[in-house]
TrEMBL record:
Residues 1-27 are annotated as: Disordered. This is Nitrous-oxide reductase. One of its GO terms (molecular function) is copper ion binding. Nitrous-oxide reductase is part of a bacterial respiratory system which is activated under anaerobic conditions in the presence of nitrate or nitrous oxide. GO terms for biological process: denitrification pathway. One of its GO terms (cellular component) is membrane. Keywords: Calcium, Copper, Metal-binding, Oxidoreductase, Periplasm, Signal. It is an enzyme of class 1 (oxidoreductase). Pathway: Nitrogen metabolism; nitrate reduction (denitrification); dinitrogen from nitrate: step 4/4. It comes from Halopiger xanaduensis (strain DSM 18323 / JCM 14033 / SH-6). Its main location: periplasm. Coiled coil: none annotated. Residues 526-633 form the Cytochrome oxidase subunit II copper A binding domain. Belongs to the NosZ family.
Length: 633
């Protein structure tokens, strides 16, 4: 046990019905807990905790000493934002309980949150390309001064080349940009310390622009990174490079952005793509790129300035190249910058080593390969690396089904391919992709919890048919003497990749909406009406327990109907919705929220409109009639 458990204090705003949080004891290994027990008269939850400790059938994978229970009514210490892969969403978990708290739809419609049903969100999805799905991988939370600031989370769409922003006041997606010149945006991360840009790493090499030219000349295909302004979500510039790109991470001092890449061979088949023993870690010198953009040294492609960062580019010829190509082994996958900003660590994937790049040296050496200062041999299939803030790195070994803990400075001291820096390995179940430690992406990781996001669960859970859940395993890393301890298995729906774990007190979501935050017109009590004009009908009504502002609404066949509906409740957690099933509509209305939906009343008849959230004892009665009169009447 290295530090006292902290109890993030919660802001008790007016609408916050929650009680003061009690300190949680879940970070205390059991023996310390017992030692401390005599002095713990105030620990009201002690009995509950020990009760759970003796109950080993609640998903505990092994007899761990660590208590990760969060008793009913108590809160977790952390938010974890897990990507949902090709389900196109973000999931919010509490850590250490691993309870799923919320799902945030991003790239696909979701009726329970009305997402993609009202005009604003469906137009946003349409403007972002109109695709019906996306593939979220890397949720990154905005930072100020290298610490989480609670403003936004960002996540990429690996399928359709997009980046989305999630507003953490309301835990909902509020912007999506369809990134020009990218087919598949894989890596996503922020340039720190202050989230100046969100970077999207284009995965597939394509002709530039991809307009029918160079179809059969793969050598001329290129991929780009895109620098996105987090406020406007505009792509400010891109840099095109040689080879495919994969993951990325930003340095913590505003200068460097790193992206791994496979296929330095510029090939089009799998066997050719992995024929070389090394591929590139690309280090983008951001101020040098900004200067090139400033000086007009770019070509406008797809509406954005694109700077040439290929190896033969003039911009890479001088003494301050805009992109440094570092040869690392082999088809590297993950890259992450250490909390102290000293090193960027790239995982070998097809090689048992990780490459440790000294960031300060990178700016000074002539040959960027001279900045590789460590190459520990870790095991088979190293993919991603996280940090505890105590000098250790934790790397997933996909093929070995393990997480390896290693000492970063020892790896710099040791000879290349030495196993000496390895501190410890723990089996995970099975085939881990990413892993994430609490606040690992900041300058000051908390060093207590780590989640291994395992691709396979095989027999860890009840059999649910041929498609098994994945397995997100919670591991306690807070005790260097005791070592890593597997605490919990959590089945998860396909398919999480990366995650971010943020201390609970750094995010302050609202309890109810603030009407000043959106453009829709607030419809209060007494303001319900139907305005018909030129084949258009504008229906305005409020909703509250247990009625809509209008008990019936009459329009004409063929009318284009816009409904503006406000939930005028001030009470947190009382949701209504407006469901009009025959018109494929369900808009969710949280307290003080207004949404609009537009549709054509194309068939005469009577359509019940009702509330789909169980809002009160009279919820089922909460309804209104939409009457569509035949056109010839
Ligand atoms: S990737 Cu999926 S396990 Cu998109 Cu960061 Cu490595
Ligand atoms: Cu309102 Cu149910």
């Amino acid at each position: 046990m290295t530090d006292e458990p902290t109890s993030p204090t919660q802001d008790s705003s007016e609408t916050d019905a929650g009680t003061e949080r009690e300190p949680l004891f879940d970070r205390i290994p059991r023996r310390d807990f017992m030692k401390a027990g005599a002095a713990a008269g105030a620990m009201g939850s002690l009995a509950g905790c020990t009760g759970l400790l003796s109950d080993q059938d609640d998903g505990l994978a092994s007899a761990s000493d660590v208590d990760a229970s969060v008793p009913p009514g108590e809160h977790d210490d952390y938010y974890a934002f897990l990507s949902g892969g090709h389900s196109g969403e973000i999931r919010v978990y509490g850590v250490p309980s691993m309870r799923q708290l919320m799902r945030i739809p991003v790239f696909g419609r979701e009726s329970a949150r009305g997402y993609g049903f009202d005009d604003r969100t469906s137009e946003m999805l349409e403007d972002a390309g109109g695709y019906s799905w996306g593939d979220t991988h890397h949720p990154r939370v905005s930072q100020t001064d290298n610490d989480y600031d609670g403003r936004w989370a960002f996540v990429n769409d690996k399928a359709n080349g997009r980046m989305a922003r999630i507003n953490l006041k309301y835990f909902e997606t509020d912007a999506i940009v369809d990134i020009p010149n990218q087919q598949g945006t894989h890596g996503a991360c922020c340039l720190l310390p202050d989230t100046k840009y969100v970077f999207g790493v284009g995965e597939f090499r394509v002709p530039m622009p991809n307009d029918g030219r160079d179809l059969t000349d793969p050598d001329s295909y290129t991929s780009t990174i895109a620098a996105i302004d987090p406020e406007t979500m505009n792509v400010e510039w891109e840099v095109l490079v040689d080879g495919n790109m994969d993951n990325g991470d930003g340095g913590k001092e505003g200068r460097w952005f790193f992206a791994t890449g496979y296929n330095s061979e510029n090939a089009t088949t799998e066997s050719e793509m992995s024929s070389s023993d090394t591929d590139w870690l690309k280090a983008f010198d951001v101020p040098a790129i900004e200067e090139a953009v400033e000086n007009g040294q770019y070509e406008e492609i797809g509406g954005v300035p694109v700077v040439d960062g290929t190896r033969d580019s003039d911009l890479n010829g001088g003494d301050r190249p805009i992109v440094r190509y570092i040869d690392v082994a082999k088809s590297p996958h993950g890259v992450s910058v250490t909390p102290d900003n000293k090193y960027a660590i790239a995982s070998g994937k097809l090689d048992p080593t990780c490459s440790v790049i000294d960031i300060e040296q990178l700016a000074e050496v002539d040959d960027p390969n001279d900045a590789i200062v460590g190459r520990p041999s870790l095991g088979m299939g190293p993919l991603h690396t996280a940090y505890d803030g105590r000098g250790h790195a934790y790397t997933t070994l996909f093929i070995d089904s393990q997480v390896v803990k290693w000492d970063i400075e020892a790896a710099v001291e040791a000879e290349a391919q030495s196993e000496d820096p390895v501190v410890e390995k723990i089996d995970v179940h099975y085939n881990p992709g990413h892993l994430i430690a609490s606040e690992s992406y900041t300058a000051d990781p908390q060093g207590d919890w780590l989640i291994s996001l395992n691709k396979l669960s095989k027999d860890r859970f009840l059999n649910v048919g041929p498609q098994k859940p994945e397995n997100d395993q919670l591991i306690y890393i807070g005790d260097d003497e005791e070592g890593m301890q597997l605490v919990k298995d959590t089945p998860s729906y396909a398919e999480p990749h990366d995650a971010s774990i943020v201390s609970a007190d750094k995010i302050q979501p609202a309890d109810i909406y603030d009407p000043a935050d959106y453009e829709e017109e607030y419809v209060d009590h007494g303001e319900s009406e139907v305005v018909r004009e030129d084949g258009r009908a504008h229906v305005k009504m409020y909703s509250t327990r247990n009625e809509f502002g209008l008990h019936e609404v009459t329009v004409q066949e063929g009318d284009e109907v816009t409904m503006t509906v406000t939930n005028i409740e001030q009470t947190p957690d009382i949701l209504h919705s407006l469901a009009i099933p025959e018109h494929d509509i369900n808009i969710k209305l949280a307290p003080q929220e207004t949404r609009e939906v537009t549709f054509t009343a194309d068939e005469p008849g009577v359509y019940w409109m009702y509330c789909a959230f169980f809002c009160s004892a009279l919820h089922l009665e909460m309804r209104s009639r939409l009457i569509v009169e035949p056109a010839d009447e």
